Amino acid sequence: MAENDIGGAGQMTSEPQSAFEGTVRLHEKNQEIEGVQVSIAEILDRLHYSEAAIFAVRLSLEEAMMNGFRHGNLQDPTKFVEVRWLIDSNSANFHVIDEGDGFDPEGVPDPTLDENLEIPSGRGLMLIRAYMSDARYHAPGNHLEMTFRKVAK
């Protein structure tokens, strides 16, 4: 699978766990990407996140990882994308870091503007920003931090 263990995601104990933390370094392999998504979804489910929240996080993670592989690492098979997470019963925080040079997220065209409807870029960022409570890039633009916060019932 990946270079590092998916900390906390695959460990089952009889004691309730209040927070799950992990790090994994991935190559661009569909089974690795899917494995991270499944493990995170299991954690979210264990912490009673809604189905809509689990969908939002899975989609955002997939977009972030794929952007890191395609646009950050330029599909270089020797480069990794690192994913870190800290998830508790109130929020899920993720860092997705590629080995690319970075970019200016403000320079990505808005895919909802009429003049950009035919341009395929920017849709992943738009989805991440729509589904996550917070999403921001750290300089030089190869490190996305995103957080999903549970809505109080």
Description:
The structure is a single chain. By secondary structure, this protein is an alpha+beta fold. The protein has a single domain, classed as 2-Layer Sandwich (Heat Shock Protein 90), CATH 3.30.565.10. Helices cover 31% and strands 24% of the residues. It has three helices and five strands; from the N terminus they run βααββαββ. It has helices at 30-46, 51-72, 123-131, and strands at residues 19-26, 81-88, 91-98, 134-138, 143-149. A five-stranded antiparallel beta sheet has the order 1-2-3-5-4, with helices on one face. Strand 4 and strand 5 form a beta hairpin. Helix 1 runs antiparallel to helix 2 (51-72) and helix 2 (51-72) packs antiparallel against helix 3 (123-131). It is globular, with a radius of gyration of 16 Å.
What is the count of distinct domains? Answer: 1
* Strand runs, count: 5
Lateral strand order in the biggest sheet: 1-2-3-5-4
CATH class: Alpha Beta
**Low-confidence segments:** 1-14
CATH architecture grouping = 2-Layer Sandwich
CATH topology: Heat Shock Protein 90
Sum up the structure in keywords:
153 residues; alpha+beta; Heat Shock Protein 90; five-stranded antiparallel sheet; 3 helices; globular; disordered N terminus
List the helices and strands and how they pair.
Elements: E1 19-26, H1 30-46, H2 51-72, E2 81-88, E3 91-98, H3 123-131, E4 134-138, E5 143-149
Antiparallel strand pairs: 1-2, 2-3, 3-5, 4-5
